[in-house]
Amino acid sequence: xxxxxxxxxxxxxxxxxxxxxxxxxxxxxxxxxxxxWSTGSGAVMTGAGSVNPTDMSFNYPNNxxxxxxxxxxxxxxxxxxxxxxxxxxxxxxTAVLTWQHGTFEFLPNGSLALTPFxxxxxxxxxxxxxxxxxxxxxxxxxxxxxxxxxxxLPGLNEANAVHLNLYEFDxxxxxxxxxxxxxxxxxxxxxxxxxxxxxxxKRDLNARSSAxxxxxxxxxxVIALAGLGAMLVLL
Length: 235
Description:
Distance between the termini: 86 Å
Largest sheet: 12 strands, antiparallel
Membrane topology: Single-pass type I membrane protein
GO biological process, one term: 'de novo' protein folding
Family: Belongs to the ROT1 family.
Radius of gyration: 21 Å
Subcellular location: Endoplasmic reticulum membrane
Helix content: 10-25%
Structural class: alpha+beta
Strand content: 25-35%
Number of domains: 1
Transmembrane segments: 215-234
Number of helices: 3
Order of helices and strands: HHEEEEEEEEEEEEEEH
Mean pLDDT: 78
């Protein structure tokens, strides 16, 4: 039977991303990568209720962490909440929240390439020692994981008793992520902010209600650390 080359190319293009998973070696085949994955206690999760890309607002998790969601169709979503200390200024803790989504593909060398939808992602940075203590901007950053592996958790038989290990482009391991939702919790897997441009728009959020919610979380940590420092000095 003759198949026209154009028809054949369309058939190949229609093969879902799951088929690509099966082409990887056995370490990936414990389960599909589809689902919502989260580090630690699972306080940080993608999906409805986590963020609002239209007005660039976050619902702040109780703890720091990272979350990624994937679909077998090739969509992904990221939500990160991190804090970084300052060695020279212990009271100057920086909190960073990041959200973005887009499409991904498995590369022949076993790596995972994530491409964001331009204009949807955004990032909030809080730093009490900076000239602007709380600011937000549109964010779009491609991600390359040099390796990814899914392992079953020993001694557990639950369907979600697996974790995902990701490795940054330079081989640095990301904290293991547990499967917390299947199917994944995700916002719409297409462009959401249709009027956004690639130009970063920064706004001071000190007057916003979100700032009143978020800043005490970070400053509470600062006060606690400062108090600990004072105790050590007294000792």
